[in-house]
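Work Package 3 (structural annotation) set out to generate three-dimensional models for the target panel prioritized at the project kickoff. During this period the team completed the workflow that converts sequence records into discrete structure tokens, so that structures can be stored uniformly alongside our sequence database. As a representative example, we reproduce one entry of 129 residues exactly as it appears in the project archive.
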Amino acid sequence: MSSTLSHQDLLAHMEQDAQALTQAALGISRAIEEKNQETLNAALQVNLQIWAGIRVVMGVPDSPVAAETRENLLRLSQYVVKTSHELTQDLRESAAESLVNVNLQIAEGLLESIGRSGGATAAAAAKSE
């Protein structure tokens, strides 16, 4: 992976991550409802892969994402990994629900960022005409 992400590439990646986080949250939520450890473990594995991707993108030194945001997401990813590993041993509903909430909140934040950035890009394009 290149260490440089264009603004458009970053926005596309953020949108994909938001969709993936939402789908993973739904998978974890279904596993909670079914009280099925095997289904939960599969959903957690998918979730961990998504968060691994987020860690890679946030680890790019020249990322246009603010340093504080990158640091917060990296710390949050550590929580997700720790909690996921604990949940593979024992389905604790409250811990699983916390992962669902984390995913949905981060997905919402990513989509809001895309909206703000898209609006700023459109405004800059209109201004240059």
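Residues 119-129 have pLDDT under 50 and may be disordered.
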